[in-house]
Amino acid sequence: MQDQQRHILTAEGIAKSYGPVVALRSVDLSVEPGEIHALLGANGAGKSTLVKVLSGVVRQDAGSASIDGQPLAYKTPSDAVRAGIATVYQDPALIPDLSLDQNLTISGLRRVEIEPWLERLELAGFDFGRLVRDVPLATLRLIDLARALALDPKLLMLDEITAALTPEQTDLVFDVMRQWRAMDRSVLFISHRLGEVLSICDEATILRNGRDVAHLSLEGVDELELVAAMLGEELAGTGPASEPSAPSLVSSVADDADVILEARNLHFRGRVNDVSFDLHRGEILGLTALDGQGQDELFALLSGDHRPTSGELIVNGEPLAAKSPYNAIRSGLVFVPADRQDALLPQRSVRENLALPLYNRISRWFGLQSDESQRVERAIDRLDIDTRAASQVQRLSGGNRQKVTLGRWLVDDFEVLLCFDPTRGIDIQTKAQIYDLLREVAASGGAVFIYSSELREIPLVCDRVLVMYNGAIVHEQAAATATEEVLLVAAHGLEVVES
Amino acid sequence: MTTVSSTTEADTRSLMWRRWVQRHGWTVGIWLILLVLVVWYSTLIPRFGGFQASTIIAGGTAWVFLGVAQAVVVISGGLDLGVGGMLVLSSVTAARFMDGQPIGVVILIGFTIMVAAAILNGFVGWIIAVSKIPDIVVTLGSLFIYQGLALMVLPKVGGGTSETFRWLFTGSGTGIGSNPWPTVVIIFIPVVIVAWWLGKTKSGLSLYAVGSDTTAAYLSGVRDVRTKIIAFAVAGVFGALAGFSSVSISGVGNPTTDGGVLTLNSVAAIVLGGVVLTGGVGSVIAVVPAAMILFFFNPILSALGVDPNRAQVIQGVLIVLVMMVAGLLEWRRIRRR
């Protein structure tokens, strides 16, 4: 009788920051035996960080957790396994250069322990001598699951396990999860696919901005209710008021403005499916999506880092067949990556970093023209960066670095600025300055295509917004009316009902 | 029914065969190249017998051990520039303390030096793992330190070791004989042990795991710091074995031997042996013939009457050519997939 009272997992007040970025503020979570528990939340809500804490990959700053009454004190992921938590991560944790047999040896498992589970997942007779790198991703995820099950954990954590699977494989995984539940074991299930969550899970904990904002039983709940729960109380409360409001910045772009960038039926290895859109001169076009819906690949296509499987890109009426980012830059597509370190010369000054694109032309190697020097000076003024730190970019804060990566495109000519999540982990004041910069960049004769994982910044900075789900554009609308709720509904691949 | 099952059996067999070629083709190829070179060499010189075989094998032993030392570290995703220095340090230490001792004491000293080398180089691995300073920087330091310590242990050429000990590594109490077999055995026992350990045990496979994908290894429960220490400790042991071979051939310790050049040879040997410099791929079994081939270049070129100054250039060109062929094969394999 006592067993039924006991939680298999309890976590209280878990907090974790990475430097200045707070990933988890305070999260409580409890999972009971024989329960499939969903962990839900929009991008950046803290799901992945919570999984990492519970699986021993990172250590929490505050809070405590216990499994089966035993307090958790991890040093490494193997301690978590010993404590009874096995995890299937988003990226398979199998060693690519080793065979499956050798991978099992590393996990301390024998073939006979994993074979019954492989059989359950219809992988009976799988060749254990194959190198992991030769095995397709979907199969690897199933093998990773079988390995986790073979460790015989009390709690199984599945992070986006269905993302790469076919519907048939997904059904197999669900069967196994049900069987696991019937054995009075528990599952913590993380998925963006709300339909799956509702069909398989019993309970849900919903995270928002690093806090648990709702615990609910999933019986009789529908997808829209889940999305509403993800938006949480904060939406009505302090949230929007503390954000910079800059609606006056948003200009309206005439429908007949020239099309600078045209994407026609872009495909990329099943990750990007038939993406088409137009980008007009002077426009800021937004893109939003949940993590891993193909947005990384789409930006890699646009910036010339990957080549599309099919479809074409047209810049100013000319088809672009970029072999490398250099070709894309030469035709006017410039990219500001999410990782600001990628785009800067950390030991050089702000001035040199700003002037960098100008040096793409050999004629500038011996000095800049006077008007160009003036533009650099003006850009420095505009950026409003503390000059004491300006001698070396590496001394700047993340927000100021991002301003430099954007500001350099004020100095040079370009057609389209591609920005991938430019405000991630940046304070609110700097965010507002970045929005201003983007506006100015667009007004100076180019266009901006920006991916943002933060839904509520879309109306602040964009003219128009696209929503991506499963590699395809599923929704498009004017940004001014794009509420967080509408975007979150669309980002989950659900039908947006006009109200 | 019979037809179906026999087809699948044949399929499986051909798959197994292809996989075997894919995994071990390079190893077999390198052994074949060595064999061809030996046969060719035997036609170049007037007489090829036990003496010639023994000279080459004994001379190449130190290169083989250094190659294996380097391979173990590189497979785990690192690089140890200090292995050449370890050869010098352990050879002079052996020469100083083994001189005039009975064989029992000599063997005891040998084991002590191996343990000390493991601890010392393992400590270097620990520093790298904890400080996150790149391997190449820390081990450049350890190379100089070992070289300097060697001069402190034995300021000038001297010392010695027992005849039985020299027989173990050269097949002769005087360092020059015509019986290659003891040398063959002394090479293969440690190499086979290490190959088995690397391929079959959890701690050995951890080296491949860390070298192949650090994150996946960590998530699979591999301890990264411990793995680094183990890899460097094993490299230290093989560096010591290389030192014993060196002292057995010359009969004395020489603290002015250039460890840096020896380290570079070890890198060339593992590259030729198919160990990928970025880690995670390779076999120590292939490093044995690769190191032997590199050592073999010199006698072959001198038998051909090539000017020693040109010999170095030719050696360099051959290494690059062999690696280009390897790169081409790998590229074709990836493209076919």
Can you put this structure into words, describing what you see?
The complex is a heterodimer of chains A (499) and B (337). With 499 residues, chain A is an alpha/beta fold. Chain A folds into two domains: 2-237, P-loop containing nucleotide triphosphate hydrolases (Rossmann fold), CATH 3.40.50.300; 242-491, Rossmann fold (3-Layer(aba) Sandwich). Chain A has helices at 2-5, 47-54, 77-83, 100-107, 111-120, 137-150, 167-182, 194-200, 223-231, 239-242, 295-302, 325-330, 350-355, 370-383, 398-411, 428-443, 458-461, 484-491, and strands at 9-18, 21-31, 36-40, 62-67, 70-71, 85-88, 155-159, 186-190, 203-208, 211-217, 259-268, 272-280, 284-288, 310-315, 318-320, 333-336, 416-420, 447-451, 464-469, 472-478. A six-stranded mixed beta sheet of chain A has the order 6-7-8-3-9-10, with helices on both faces. A six-stranded mixed beta sheet of chain A has the order 16-17-18-13-19-20, with helices on both faces. In chain A, a hairpin with a 2-residue loop joins β19 (464-469) and β20. In chain A, α5 (111-120) crosses α6, α9 (223-231) crosses α18 and α14 packs antiparallel against α15. Chain A is globular. Chain B has one domain (55-305). In chain B, 80% of the residues lie in helices and 0% in strands. Chain B has helices at 2-44, 50-75, 83-98, 103-131, 135-153, 163-170, 181-200, 202-212, 214-219, 224-250, 259-272, 284-303, 308-336. The longest helix of chain B has 43 residues, at 2-44. Chain B starts with a helix and ends with a helix. The interface between A and B is medium-sized, with 25 and 25 residues.
